[in-house]
Amino acid sequence: MTDKKEIMVSIWCQTYNHKDYIRDALRGFVAQKTNFAFEIVVYDDASTDGTSDIVREYADKYPDIFRVTIAENNIFSSAEGQINLRKKQRKDLRGKYIGFCEGDDYWIDCNKLQMQVDYMESHPDCPAYFHNALRLDCRDLSLETIDPYECSDERELTAEELIMLYRAHPPTASILFKRDIVLGPDFIDLAPGRDYALELYALSKGDIHYNSRIMSVYRFFRPGSYTETISEDRIFAFRFYFGMTSFLMQYDRYTEYRYHVWITSRIQSSAEWFMYSMKSDKELIQFYDECQKEGYFSEAFDEECLEKIKCLRAQTFDASYYGRKIEKFVQTHKNIVFMGIGNYSRKLTEQFVHNHVKFAGYAVSRKKDGDADTFMGKSVWELTELPLPKGETGVVIAINPMNWNDILQSLENAGIEHYFCPFLLDQGGNE
């Protein structure tokens, strides 16, 4: 096991105070039946509950396959520590393929690695292989099948499925990556929820394979878990949502907007937290500054992200706001129509009236029987029946853009070519 060429798979297990769970994880590793060599690399981040003793026990029992680090001080709680840990991963993981399983999750199929490696060896362009799993709710110990992707056997996943996560997030313990994916660019390493960032990076490199066979268990709502901390700690939640927003914007540009429609929806979903969880811009800046003091968000791109969030908050809540981009759009079109007749249109109407900006009326994708013909004193038309020259008309999208693909489809169906959405956090390649 000392020769790099002999190791097909490196298993990375990061653990901290998992005394009640770690045996399940370690058993799942050593139970793997393979015709290739694999290594188990355990990083214990200075556990204080006896987890370290269990890890040492397994390392002593299986010295040929275990490589263990027991940290003297907890480092994952700091930005610098997380970066150093990523560097350690890059240095320590020697396999052609990399599997991740945190100390509170576990594998339940002894053929898991063999199945994944067999497929990836026969499909050398495949950057990652996911499989189905069970979700164990630590609050009541109930089990349910996750089924992150609709499938009765095996298939390749679409970009939309991977980015949008309509059904569920594939558990990290289910994924086997090519080594090159784990050694990706720095902005992937800096993303919170790094598993999702690695999945999207893998997507940019090839087709990802999925197997509906259940081969692992994901524990959630474990006391002190990531899920629980996000729901209870606002600074931690800020760090997650801001980091995810910044990452998605960088990923969109990295992929040259190949997946822009779906990335836009994910950005808006993440940005919702800043719209409705932050009390004011003052609090937004305060939280950002506190995270910076802890070593997070030091990149110039993060500053750009912060400014975009501030502008979006103004667009959403400030009745007097009139942004430079919407002003430019209005100036280049003779007629302006708002798409939508809800709260977003009310806000835009207030802003246009306050700034003495004229517009023709409102439009909806489809009018239903009984719908009013006017809204806030102006006409409401169907998009396909605008009584205005299309070449001279600009449509301002006054709808929550979280379902961006559906909005674009409605515009396309109506033959609308000139449109702008001021409620998008990031305009992407259109900026």
Give a written overview of the molecule.
With 431 residues, this protein is an alpha/beta fold. It has helices at 22-30, 51-61, 79-92, 112-122, 159-164, 179-182, 186-189, 194-203, 226-232, 234-254, 260-276, 281-293, 300-317, 324-331, 343-354, 404-413; strands at 7-15, 37-44, 66-70, 97-100, 106-107, 128-137, 142-145, 154-156, 176-178, 209-220, 335-339, 361-364, 374-375, 378-382, 393-397, 419-420. The strands form 2 sheets. Strands 1, 2, 3, 4, 5, 6, 7, 8, 9 and 10 form a 10-stranded mixed sheet that branches. The mean pLDDT is 93.
Write a concise keyword list for the protein shown above:
10-stranded mixed β-sheet, elongated, 431 residues, 19% strand, 41% helix, 6-stranded mixed β-sheet, alpha/beta
Show the helix and strand layout.
Layout: E1 7-15, H1 22-30, E2 37-44, H2 51-61, E3 66-70, H3 79-92, E4 97-100, E5 106-107, H4 112-122, E6 128-137, E7 142-145, E8 154-156, H5 159-164, E9 176-178, H6 179-182, H7 186-189, H8 194-203, E10 209-220, H9 226-232, H10 234-254, H11 260-276, H12 281-293, H13 300-317, H14 324-331, E11 335-339, H15 343-354, E12 361-364, E13 374-375, E14 378-382, E15 393-397, H16 404-413, E16 419-420
Parallel strand pairs: 1-2, 1-4, 2-3, 6-10, 11-12, 11-15, 12-14, 15-16
Antiparallel strand pairs: 4-9, 5-10, 6-7, 6-9, 8-10, 13-14
Helix pairs in contact: 9-10, 10-11, 10-13
